[in-house]
Structures are given as structure tokens and as C-alpha cells.
């Protein structure tokens, strides 16, 4: 009997471990977390505002984000196939709400947390590797 081998789709790269775990609950979590993301007393989550690359529709996506030297970094827990990531690349930027303040960000770049140009301290990098997060979206301020 012939065996078939599943290969990741060329259009949608395989999701990291964190994305596979939380992916099933994403619609429910997003509707709950969107209400508090980016507010003053919720430091972990930011509210990411972006435009659909095909529809032009505005979206607000709650994501984990952190201020790093020169801008903000967002872990790509769902990989580079995430719609919000592809929308931001197509638009060339996005707006985020962090600590109740809106920030216009530009120049989206995917970065490797282990690279020499990484804005992350050495102690954080093993945590990212353990979660399977190999890429971050870096956005700089205007």
C-alpha cells in the first residue's frame, strides 16, 4: 500500500507550537481580549489595527506585543501565514494601541530573535525557542 506524506502548504507555512495550541480557541479569545487589549492596565496585549489587503476593511486584532529599542515587536505565534501579518506587509504599516496610547508604525520587518540584530535580551531568547516562536514582526515608529 502506498503511503502519502503530508507536506506544509507553500502558501501557508507551518504554524509554531504556540499557534497550534491556541489556534482552536482564537475566535473566542480574540473577541474577549479585544475589549481589553492595549489598555493602560493590560501590559501584555496590544490592539493591532490594520487594513485587509484585498477587502480594504479595517481590522482590530489583539496580539502580544512589546516595546523594543526603535519600535515594537510582535511574536508571530501563528507563523508568517497569519492574515494580520500579510495585511501589515501589504500596507507597509499599522496602528497599535499600547497602554491606552495609539502609535502609528511603519517599515514592517520579520526578524529572528536569535540574530545579531535582535532587540531581545539573551535571557528571553530561550523562552521564544521553547514556544516555537522563530520570527517576530518588528515595526518602527514614524
Explained architecture:
The protein has 142 residues and is α+β, with helices and mostly antiparallel strands. It is built from 4 helices and 7 strands; from the N terminus they run H-H-E-E-E-E-H-E-E-H-E. A hairpin with a 2-residue loop joins strand 3 and strand 4. The N terminus is likely disordered.
> Could you name the CATH topology?
Pnp Oxidase, Chain A
Beta fraction: 25-35%
Total number of helical segments? 4
Shape assignment: globular
The CATH architecture is: Roll
Question: What is the CA-CA span between the terminal residues?
Answer: 59 Å
Q: How would you characterize the largest beta sheet?
A: 7 strands, antiparallel
Index terms:
142 residues, alpha+beta, Pnp Oxidase, Chain A, seven-stranded antiparallel sheet, 7 strands, disordered N terminus
Short description:
The protein is an alpha+beta fold and 142 residues long. It has 4 helices and 7 strands. Strands 2-1-5-6-7-4-3 form a 7-stranded antiparallel β-sheet.
Write the layout of secondary structure elements.
Layout (H helix, E strand, L loop, with lengths): L16 H6 L3 H8 L11 E7 L6 E7 L1 E3 L2 E5 L7 H9 L1 E6 L2 E11 L13 H6 L5 E6 L1
Antiparallel strand pairs: 1-2, 1-5, 3-4, 4-7, 5-6, 6-7
